[in-house]
Amino acid sequence: MTAEQKPASSSIQPANNGASPTFCVAMLKNGSTVKIEGKAEEFLQTIKNADFAWINVQVGDLKGEGSKIASVLGFNHLIVDELIVQKFSGYSDQTSELGLLLPAVRVTDLDVEINKLVILIRQNIIVTLHGEHVTRLVKFARYAVASFKKIPKNLEDIDKLSLILIRILDENNERNFDGIRSIQEQGESISRYLIETTGFRQQLGKDIYKMKHALISYLEALWASLEVIHYLRYGDAELITDDPTILQKVSMLSNDLTRQISISEQMSSVLASGLEVLQSIYNNQLTILNNRLSLLAVWMAVIGTAFIVPNTIATVFGTPVGEHVEWHTQLLIMVFSTLVSVAVVYMFVRKRSILPPKEG
Questions:
Q1: Are residues 297 and 269 in the same domain?
Q2: Tell me: the pLDDT tens digits for 126-154?
Q3: Beta-carbon count within 10 A of 57 CB
Q4: Same domain for 141 and 35
Q5: Residue 99: which CATH number?
Q6: pTM for the complete prediction?
Q7: Residues with Cβ < 8 Å from 300, sequence gap 6 or more?
Q8: What is the pLDDT of residues 199-244, one digit of tens each?
Q9: In what order do the strands lie in the sheet containing 90-93?
């Protein structure tokens, strides 16, 4: 090993939480595996001495810096420009170079953030480019050295690269799958309100909308990932193996994605049912409110009658006519007429079915 590579060998230990997001993991031609951190241009000598290598580079602006990094590492910068203009996924096969664009999903509560992950392949290296919010590959890098050592040395170079690519794709998919778990946790919180029929929660409708929007965004990302996997599963590209055993691993990635898509679609169906339940709860509570208002209006009419009738009779007795009627007779007439008028109004309301039905 050269003097330049000695510092590299000292970095074989898994990276800690403060690991650099830009690093190179390489299997050298002498059989040793190294992991070094630094800038992209510092990895060039290691690449020359490597049997195969994986370089991960984090950039502040993927559009502005991605093509420059690609050029430094020997790629055509146009391949990056071609990929990053795509929405979620992309595939560019230029025979001697292969470029992939994959979504890297991060879910916080019900906020789905879809970042771009660019993968470049040529000869004996794989390069991953991404922005600051994509940390999954830095975490995977802790075990990359061990993964490299497990790759059989008697394989063809293209088979080795394909195995590394599959491992990177699998890591990205697994971290994307964490998103559905986060959405499910939020769904559990929302489901509490669906079983509380005693009151209508104004926030519930907004939360269900956010969850449905999050699921749609998440599904878009999964479909985009599946599209890229489909490009790889038959090994048509020159830089992808056609070994059936290795391609079977690609098919397994496709099956995992299909299963996650199915789970997400089921959750979407459950949400649709939840919206129907929410509408039923709202309609039921609106009916209850209308019934209460109707009942209040009826009783106000009855009570109003109880006040108006004796007040009218008292007005009559306040005239000279009342001087010829004794006070206890006046009181008896007012009480009797009030009771009769209230009873008449109540019976009229019942007969006309103006009274709303009882709740429950």
A1: no
A2: 999 999 889 888 888 888 899 999 999 88
A3: 25
A4: yes
A5: 3.30.460.20
A6: 0.72
A7: none
A8: 455 667 777 778 888 888 999 999 999 999 998 988 788 889 989 9
A9: 33-37, 23-28, 50-58, 125-130, 111-122, 98-108, 90-93
